[in-house]
Amino acid sequence: MLELKELILGFFKSLKCDVEDKGEFFIIKNIPEKVEKFLDLTSPAKLYFIKENYSGEGYLIDETSNVFKKIKDYLKNSPSKTLLKIDFDLPNNIKDKIRLRNCSLDKIEKKNENNYFSRFSFITTLMALNKTDHISNEIFVHEGKIVNGDLSSYQVSEGDIKEASTEHLEADYLVARENLKVLLKDKISEFGVDLGIKLKKEIERINIHYNHILEEFEANKDSLLKRINAAGLNNDIEKIKKLKEMLELSFSEKEEKKIKNERDIISGNERSKYSLNIDHKLINTTVIYYPIFKIQVTLSEAGFSKNFELVYNPLTEELSQIKCDSCKTQLDQINVCRGGHICCSSCLHLCNECGKRYCRLCFAGICNNCGKLVCNNCARKCSDCGSLNCKNCMRKIGKTGLEKCSNCIVYCSSCSAITDKKQLVRTSDGRMICRDCSSKIKHAIH
Ligand SMILES: [Zn+2]
Ligand SMILES: [Zn+2]
Ligand SMILES: [Zn+2]
Ligand SMILES: [Zn+2]
Ligand SMILES: [Zn+2]
Ligand SMILES: [Zn+2]
After folding, report:
1. pTM (2 decimals)?
2. Which is nearest to 85 in space by CA: 274, 291, 382, 357?
3. pLDDT exceeding 70 applies to what percent of the chain?
4. Near ion ligand 2, which residues have CB within 5 Å?
5. CA distance readout (Å), 203 to 195, 215, 271, 279
């Protein structure tokens, strides 16, 4: 239910009147002359909303007061539109909210975007018999959903039409209208039950009355028919003719229908008298907006930097969730991986080879030879056996410069040079030597 006070004060504010809160009462200044006349009050006007505070001077505003009734009439004819902005600034301690672990915050840049609420104020009038009831409702819609709204704890100022969009209003209005029906369901059926009982009683009374008339009609018709019969037996033609004329005049089917029609018309009238008239009036639409901060964050770690964007919603005081690029868990502390990822502490590891910190995504695996955990940069694959090795465990073969893993090379037993296992040559005395040494031996023999 809409606070009457807020509705009234909002009304004056929307007319650009000065509204001063004096604690026990409000002073309204600069009321347009036209409105003054319409409301029958003079500015500056002292408005009281609490009966106990009312001194007798000024105006006490409640559901039954003249000022309220007139404002309602005024608004019914021209629903007001209000644009409000909730003032927020990026909190100074925003840096504390971004908890960094292995990196430092280089730069913060903020961009604004707006988030919107719509507030619709309705007055519903229920009318039946001599009873009238006014119900006021205030409905907040945010992103197409009904939300609980209360602006009282926020710093609110007049919005700027250049800043705000009203695109969402139409869709929000439909949502609010649907919700209004739900809100009023109980009230309407409560109102309706009472009427239904009364109507039922009335219809019963009408039916009893007309049944009685119809019974009488039937009885009189019967006795007339009996008299016609008797006259027939006596062959009294003159009498028969007279009686038949009487029958035609007063007891024809048409006459019976007349009675039934009368009954139906009276019942119908009662039904419409007891029917419930519902009238919804939109009296105010408010677009409420507040800034959403997009923060460009630059993190740096050992000369390496990484940019990313965070969104801070000052209303919920929530910073956008950041997930570990690797394991996807929500981060409470941010680490920067040298491969350009954001990750959690358990996904960040030191490469045993280069000594830089990388996330799981950037690790190639464990060296087949020495068992070191190595990053993608430091890992090599042996072209012979396909095993993963750290770059330290790979061996350069002779003059070719080709690298192979330690399993795929041997040291020449003659010159001790690193040699590809596949390229070894067996000497006549059974030793395994490199091709160079082998050809030297051949030369020496020849
Ligand atoms: Zn992780
Ligand atoms: Zn490495
Ligand atoms: Zn990474
Ligand atoms: Zn290794
Ligand atoms: Zn190998
Ligand atoms: Zn050799």
Report:
1. 0.58
2. 291
3. 99
4. 351, 353-354, 375, 377-378
5. 12, 18, 8, 26
